[in-house]
# Entry
Amino acid sequence: MNLVKRCVFGISILSLASLNVQCKGEKKEEVTQEAKATDSVSIVKTEYGKTEKGVQIDRYTLKNQKGMEVNIITYGGIITSLKVPNKAGKSEEVVIGFNSLEQYQKANPYFGALIGRYGNRIAKGKFTLDGKQYSLAINNEPNALHGGPEGFHRAVWTAEEAKGGDSASLKLKYVSKDMEEGYPGNLTVFVTYTLNKDNTLDVSYDATTDKKTVVNLTQHSYFNLSADFTKPILDHVITIDSDKLVPVDATLIPTGKLTDVTNTPFDFRKPTTVGARINNATDDQLKKGLGYDHCWVLNNQDKGNRFAASAYDPTSGRLLEVYTDQPGIQFYTGNFLDGTLPMRNGGTYAHRTGFCLETQHYPDSPNQKDFPTTVLSPGENYKTKTSFKFSVK
Ligand code: BGC
# Structure
């Protein structure tokens, strides 16, 4: 490769620091190796801002050569931006987000955030382990939601970058202290975001504890694949590989039964638009959720990482497929978005302008003896993975 070509190549894949080295034409061999090592996916760190307590927050931009770019900040491990191409090859924003750290700290219904220690609701904020009852803050009357008011979505994570030939990763770490937000045990958590060259974003979760505790981690991005956040997501075509739902009571706590989705608005085994049945006034579960805000029991639970769900926007042609090893997925259609939160470039996020596909264990598992366990004991490794794969059709 001649020098000119190498410099052009470098612009698209290397950080500015490496680019200087490369374009001066120094250390020819090393530069070539670096270009190979970083191959098609780059990761670049920039300063994002300071928290209200004065803590420095960084932003990492992961970018590949197929038009996918993801921005993640160390506050809450939040995905602040995710751009992917439409069928005409145009990369555009497909996640809801704010344009300031201040707004993420002020009022954020978990836009883009990492959720822990326990994603979803725990009934009345109480659970028992080895005969001892633990009490959590009630932040979603009358229940505890998403790890509490100071959950992982508001934690400052430390970050480490890693580059591989066909991917770049950001490994985030947070140590949640014993009894933080009411949960027992010092919990050491790693969440690794990996952008691959084929437009897949992998999210891997690892955790260990020094006392028995409960853990249910997830990612809470709100997608709108049309890239037009003034439009509701009702035209998106959804598929969920699930025969059964986790029905809930009026406070969105599971009744304990798992019900067949056949002949209900919750059957997404065949691709169906969000809007086709969401306003079915006679369906009791839709009434309780004010739309879709439920956990589906994913099929093939013995198969490890497998296809879980997809969303397709016919106008842009964008397709999102979700793969996971988790037993459930919460499909939430932004029913509580109410036109009060600011969009990035003016205007506000209206009702149902984003949807979430949160891979997880079922809600309230610590209080449901028949649900797969969310208990983590010392000596065990909590290890799960979810992938968000983008393409067009
Ligand atoms: C929950 C919703 C909640 C939303 C934002 C979702 O995971 O299921 O009920 O409103 O998060 O807080």
In short: The chain has two domains: 1-36, 38-392.
